[in-house]
Design a protein that fits this description.
By secondary structure, the protein is an all-alpha fold. It has two domains: 81 residues, no CATH class; 156 residues, no CATH class. The protein contains eleven helices and no strands.
Length: 240
């Protein structure tokens, strides 16, 4: 009974926080409705229903992240990091799987794929965008796991990667350039920044000689970089 009361109280706190984030959106919508939009009443009701559903979904998602994904990811990282050195390397292929699966579950990635498909009239397929991003994130997460295991600095990955991006800017069309940098943004969504980062932090806590602040963070920078590279290379293939 006490647990039910506790979770009910925490859920109400999460709901109130989500409501505070949604109220400015509602305020500006109503302001624009009064000044410029002048939408019919039926359309306004649809928008308000959508906002209400979004509020419920956001509350449940944040509650699930705090009490489900974060603890599970951290414990998973602690168990993997506590293995002996040869067995610890299983984190690298596991990073490939986690990065790929997390990207497929990322709502923003699917939205980007749908919009690119629609904007290009089907020339660039939705699934091509989604799976390209998933591959890029999978590579990034596996390299992030390798960085924690072997302890090399993150700049060894970031500096060459972003230098390559700067070189590819010269050869990539402006259309694919825009898609690529948007891809880097949507790939760093809530699924990656909650579950996968929690795994890396938990791992860095238990591996001797590793620091959660120095070694646990930095994964998001890698996740943002590799989808940009993959989409730029995809753009070069389409131009050819």
């Amino acid at each position: 009974m006490n647990e039910i009361i506790y979770f009910g109280r925490e859920l109400s706190f999460t709901f109130w926080g989500s409501l505070q984030t949604m109220l400015p959106i509602l305020f500006f919508f109503l302001l624009f409705q009064a000044l410029y939009l002048k939408l019919p009443r039926q359309r306004i009701q649809q928008v308000l229903k959508g906002l209400a559903i979004s509020l419920v979904g956001l509350t449940l998602f944040l509650f699930g992240v705090e009490y489900g994904l974060l603890p599970a990811g951290e414990q998973m990282g602690i168990i993997l990091g506590g293995m002996t050195y040869p067995h610890r390397c299983v984190m690298i292929p596991l990073g490939l799987f986690l990065g790929f699966a997390s990207t497929l579950a990322e709502p923003a990635v699917r939205v980007l794929g749908y919009e690119v498909d629609k904007a290009t009239s089907g020339l660039i397929k939705e699934n091509l965008v989604i799976y390209s991003l998933a591959v890029g994130v999978a590579i990034a997460v596996s390299l992030g796991m390798a960085r924690i295991i072997f302890g090399f600095p993150i700049q060894y990955l970031l500096i060459p990667g972003y230098l390559l991006i700067l070189v590819l800017l010269k050869f990539t069309s402006s259309n694919f350039m825009s898609i690529a940098f948007d891809a880097g943004g949507v790939a760093t969504g809530p699924m990656i920044t909650t579950f996968v980062v929690a795994v890396t932090l938990g791992t860095a806590e238990v591996i001797p000689g590793r620091d959660p602040v120095m070694d646990g963070f930095g994964l998001i920078a890698l996740v943002a970089m590799f989808p940009i590279l993959l989409m730029m290379l995809l753009g070069l293939m389409f131009e050819r």
